[in-house]
Structures are given as structure tokens and as C-alpha cells.
Amino acid sequence: MSTKRDLEFLYEMGCLRFIPRAWVQFFGPDFQNLAEHHLRVIWIALVLARMERKGNIEKIMKMALVHDVPESRTGDVDYVSRMYTKRDESMGMRDIVKDTILEKEMLELWYEYEKKKSVESRIVKDADTLDVDLEVQEQAMKGHKHVKVWMAEREMFVPTRLYTASAKKLWKAIIKSCPYDWHRNARNRINYGDWKTEK
User: Fold this and answer.
1) Higher pLDDT, 101 or 31
2) I need a labelling partner for 153 at 20 to 30 A (CA). Which of 11, 17, 23, 160 fits?
3) Which CATH fold topology does 3-183 show?
4) What is the dihedral of CA 141, 19, 97, 117, to 10 degrees?
């Protein structure tokens, strides 16, 4: 273990914000980056863990942090490129955490996540999947027309790929949701403030 390697790791994790998600190639640059994806996956995983009432929350949070870390070295691969590309995410993960204070723990978590056998890994994978659907809803509301076609395609296969009952329930709510409800229904000038009109 070395402080130098710990710092290099932390700087590399900071660079996740510069790594675009794979779908930028098809839909343009107005999509979340890898760091933004990680953040919401962590929150989704926490919600799913509470809904499921299963699994070790600390482990789930750490696993969500680590789930796509190898993409710092391998990049994200879209559904077309995946047919032609071979990535060595295992080597990427090993090299990223090598000689850091987190090496053993992060490798164990990442390999467990990749196997999708434990309740924790399945919750995190469900969170990873649901983040795509949240992003698709957001993009549809911004007027991306092709995203609506993609939503219909996802409706055919996503339910069969989700592991937990809670994720399936949340997914059904996501595809009917409006991404703007959080601020329209929040305490704001229209609902509670000086713009409120008396009825």
C-alpha cells in the first residue's frame, strides 16, 4: 500500500466525470457522464435495499461505488460496439486499485458484483439498469424523439433482466413518471409562495 497510489486512485476517480456514457454516440452530448451515473446508482441502490429489506447496506453502497470503476480504463461500450469489442475490465479493475489501501476490498466487491449471485450484487445491478431508464425518461421530456423508440424497445426486455421485485415495481413507476414532478410538487413559489393564487 502506498499513499502515492491512493492519491493516484483518487485523481483517477475524479476523472470519471470526463468519461461519457456510451449512448452519447447515438443521441448527442446531453447525457450524464460516468460520475453522474455512479452517483444516482448509489441512491437507487439505497432505495432498492430499503424496499427489499435485504442485504448489507454498507456493502451495497460500496458495491455501487465500484460497479463501473473499470470503465475509467476501458471506457463504456454501446450496444453496437459491444458486438465488436473485447474489454478486459478485470485487468482494468486490478490495475486501478493496485497497491492502494482499498485494493483487497474493492476487488472483492467488484468480482462479487460481476457474478450477480448475492442479494447485494443483484440490487446494485438493478440500480444500474434503472438509472438508464431514469435517464431515458429525462431525455424523452427534453424532446429527444429517438429516445421514445428506445423506451419502447427497453419495455420488451428490461422487466426480464431485473432481479428484485422492488426494482420491477420501481421500473413500472419510472416509465409512467415525469422527471419534473420533483420540483413542481416541491415547496416552491407557485405552491406555497408569493405566486400562489387563491382558489
Assistant:
1) 101
2) 17
3) Hypothetical protein af1432 (1.10.3210)
4) 40
